[in-house]
Amino acid sequence: MKLIALIAITALIDGTRITFAPGDEVTGLSSHDIAELKASGALECEEEKAAEQKKADRTEKAAAKEFADARKAVQAHQASTDGTALVTG
């Protein structure tokens, strides 16, 4: 899990004060510190972010398809009721 600092983070790791600049990979934190920093928005996990982006992309694609299908249905209904539909038979 690759953790990236979104803001400057100063932590005491193994008795040493360490500062991570925004964009730095953060290592050596306890799981509690990681959870708290992620919850506060100071830290992000690249893998989690990529998974969230994939999910958002899939959701957006599904919504676009649903919209296109609904639009086609409305257009078909309008064409069949406005007298411009071609009736053969």
Description:
The protein is of the alpha+beta class and 89 residues long. Helices cover 52% and strands 18% of the residues. The strands form 2 sheets. It has a two-stranded antiparallel sheet with strand order 1-4. The protein has a two-stranded antiparallel sheet with strand order 2-3. A hairpin with a 2-residue loop joins strand 2 (9-13) and strand 3. The termini are far apart.
List the helices and strands and how they pair.
Blueprint: E1 3-5, E2 9-13, E3 16-20, H1 31-40, E4 43-45, H2 46-81
Antiparallel strand pairs: 1-4, 2-3
- Helical content stands at 40-55%
Number of strands: 4
How much strand?
15-25%
Alpha-carbon distance between the two ends? 66 Å
Cα radius of gyration in angstroms: 26 Å
| Major pleated sheet | 2 strands, antiparallel
Which residues sit in consecutive blocks of at least 5 with pLDDT less than 50? none
Shape: rod-shaped
